[in-house]
Amino acid sequence: MAKAGSEVPGLPARRAALRLLDGVLRRGETLEQNETAALRGLPAPDAGLARAIAAETLRWLVNFDALIDSVTREVLPDDAKSRTVLRLMLAQWLRLDTPPHAVVATALPLLSGGPKRLAHGVFGALTKRGVELPAAPTLPEAVGERWGERAGAIAGGLAEPPPLDLTLRDPAQTAEWAVKFGADSLMPGHLRLSRGQAVHGLEGFEDGAWWVQDLAASLPARLLGEGGGKRALDLCAAPGGKTLQLAAQGWQVTALDISAKRLKLLEENLKRTGLEAEVIAADAFKWEPPTENGAKFDAILIDAPCTATGTARRHPDVLHRIGPRQIEQMAEVQARLIERASGWLTPGGMLVYAVCSLESDEGEDQAEKVWLPREPISAEELPAGLSPTAHGTLRTDPGMLPEHGGLDGFFIARWRNS
Q1: Is 236 a catalytic residue?
Q2: How far is CA 278 from CA 25, 232, 263, 266, 299, in A?
Q3: Residue where a domain terminates, one of 129, 155, 176
Q4: Catalytic residue (one of 16, 20, 168, 356)
């Protein structure tokens, strides 16, 4: 039997979007963590619409709240269902170009009684006024304070979801693939396509010619260079993009991750691309390199667990879930990983540490604790438009390379064992 109200076309997608938002804002879950339950039973188009509504609501939440508050006599509680539904309504109208009458028809059934009349009145007042959003979303106050002078530029890079970046198995074929896809390339082995592509249907997917990977996420492995058959450890390897890069660069790779489930995706991609790596499901704080194979590595890449605030373009939930407690917890894990892994380097071996975080506690502050001699990153190793810091590290953020569509926020540093 159909649920009450499901006869309204589009209502199930809006109900699912409401569940997604509830998971993020009330329970502190990621959008991805909540998708299985929130989207259960929806056809793919409805599931995609629900994701888009929820993501745009979170991206512009501060601005939507300001609009709502501008026409209400009393401020609605942050957790009031009427406020959340109004946020969804504004996201559809102002970001997804849904006609106001369709917004009303599919949103008001989510409410009942007085809240329904309130939402209708507030939305009607805003549409009559013809309100518009600014060029860039306003960051939550606490986030803006953490990011300091970088906050304005970063916010500008969060206005739109990101384009689709691919990393090629063979960088020598960059020009050929760029022509096939009509894609831009910001460095050898990189392609940038417009968002919304059906990845599995693109030429070269089945043949393993490329994999999806944000430009910034591809830089840490690139900074280890060609392997020449030497041994590399990819610590916290899943879902595996960096493992694939290292294998393609000629390293003999050991890929370690605590999640056997996530490593299955890595194994699938290794099979698809024809690349090879030793895949190990283990806790990095308990695992030891097997002495019979030589306990040291010529290169170690630590793509450490982090708050992932640098991925806010595609995961705007991080703007509202992450605070001092999560940052402190991740920083403790990162420091322990660096200390443990740095002892596994051969003399002359290189260590690269990376986090997709915009928090200095997880990046710059961690780098200051490393006892190894720093191996400065050079501008020649980076895409045009990016430069290393005065300390020889790299900090990227979504406001950089705006003419090309931006990139994720990362901190990357490199050391060589003396």
Answers
A1: no
A2: 39, 10, 11, 11, 15
A3: 129
A4: 356
